[in-house]
Amino acid sequence: MTNKDIHYLIKQTNAAPLVVFRLFFGLMMLMSIVRFWLNGWIETLYLEPNFHFSYYGFSWVKPLGNYTYLLFIVCALSAFFVAIGYKYRIAIITFFLSFTYIELMDKTTYLNHYYFISILSFLMIFLPANAQFSVDAFIKKKQYQNIPKWTIDSIKLLLGIVYFYAGLAKLNSDWLLRAMPLKIWLPSKYDIPFIGNNLMQQDWFHYTMSYGGLLYDLMIPFLLLFKKTRTYAFVLVVFFHVFTRILFPIGMFPFIMIISTLIFFEDNFHQKIIKFIKKHLLKDNSSDFDHQKSESKISLKSIKNYTFSKSKKQLIYPILGLFLLLQILFPFRNLLYPGELFWTEEGYRFSWRVMLMEKAGYSNFKIVDAKTKAFFYVNNDDFLTLYQEKQMSFQPDFILEYAHYLGDHFKNQGHENVQVFVDSYVALNGRMSTVFIDPKVNLYQKRESFKHKDWIVPFSSKIKIKGI
């Protein structure tokens, strides 16, 4: 480690940006959990299905029956405690574990921003986000004015990775030369006032949206970093995410990203937010809560700098260094696989490829007796919900896992010499539907692994990918 690195790691900055981030993050997560519950998605996504698709290596993570509601309660309460900074370390660890467990219960519900929340909450475990303006600080009668600068910069880096890698992923021929999949999606938004009937139908508008989204993702992290462009960049962030929220049903993600980018602003901006909350929401009219002189109130001892002990540094630095390195390298793992990424999806998830594909499939499974050659076809409605069947029909790992589920099911029913084949067809980004899975391959004999799935029929076209 160079002297420059050491100097950076000990450099201090005001804690307000991290404190405000903690508050808004906790509140946004609480709102998200409550929204999920009120929309009835706990029941429809986790309790009603007979079968749940699992992530490789996490097949043991399953819904907990009616106790799944308790899991969501724990997650919501921990988010609230994170927001107010009460037992912060325990609260953020609990939130990370409970939210990640929820995310892993069924692969069908995968969204990029769920993954983002999981890794962000993991990062926050190691940050002193309760340094001030927290219940912990009030109880201990001690708060810190400054914290290590890297604790805030690590969140900025994570946000920058999300945006910049999303931009790199758009450097492909479908996005740039065919305006796909926006050319498929946008014409359906005819009911949007003013622009729906006209602009949404125009070819030039589709390309403008494609290139605009590309430039936004690539440039916005850097525009937010510089003071001269920061305010304009944030206005652009708000416009972009509100507009995409109007166009597409992407839940809380736009609001999460808008709130998260506030951390790029300087500490005096966040101090004003804290003072506003104290004055108008907490009804504290004192000019400076941190130096309250009134004998009738409990005063807090303000300590200038928060520093990590030597033992904590020896633990935290390697963990977070490896964590951030993983975030930088992991999205490139698709380079280890042959074939067209959008077709095989090997290395597609957890890589910030956002809304790049319009994929539709049809998968009809055939159960065959290997000896007698007798066979019958499966009615997917007997085993899957409509949403599960839709996701399964064009994702190879889903198809393989479902094939094994069907094989086990019918084997347990007394069928012998079970083989499972599938007639599968997929259409990608407006192309004609073509054969997806080799119909001659017995999927019941194949096993999930990190190896290339050679039973996927090669893509008949070519998407020239310039980015990741």
List the secondary-structure elements in sequence, H or E: HEHHHHHHEHHHHHHHEHHEEHHEE
- Count of helical segments? 18
Radius of gyration computed on alpha carbons: 25 Å
Strand-residue proportion? 5-15%
- Per DSSP E runs of 2 or more residues, the count of β-strands stands at 7
State the separation between the terminal residues, measured CA to CA: 30 Å
Protein structure class: alpha+beta
Portion in helices: 40-55%
Order of strands, widest sheet: 5-4-6-7
Characterize the overall form: globular
The biggest beta sheet is recorded as: 4 strands, antiparallel
Unreliable stretches: 287-298
Average pLDDT confidence is 92
Quick synopsis:
This protein has helices at 3-10, 16-38, 41-47, 67-84, 88-104, 112-124, 135-140, 149-169, 173-177, 182-185, 203-225, 227-247, 253-260, 267-281, 310-329, 341-344, 386-392, 396-412; strands at residues 12-14, 142-148, 301-305, 359-369, 375-377, 418-428, 434-437. With 468 residues, the chain is of the alpha+beta class.
Q: What can you see in these coordinates?
A:
It contains 18 helices and 7 strands. The protein has helices spanning 3-10, 16-38, 41-47, 67-84, 88-104, 112-124, 135-140, 149-169, 173-177, 182-185, 203-225, 227-247, 253-260, 267-281, 310-329, 341-344, 386-392, 396-412; strands at residues 12-14, 142-148, 301-305, 359-369, 375-377, 418-428, 434-437.
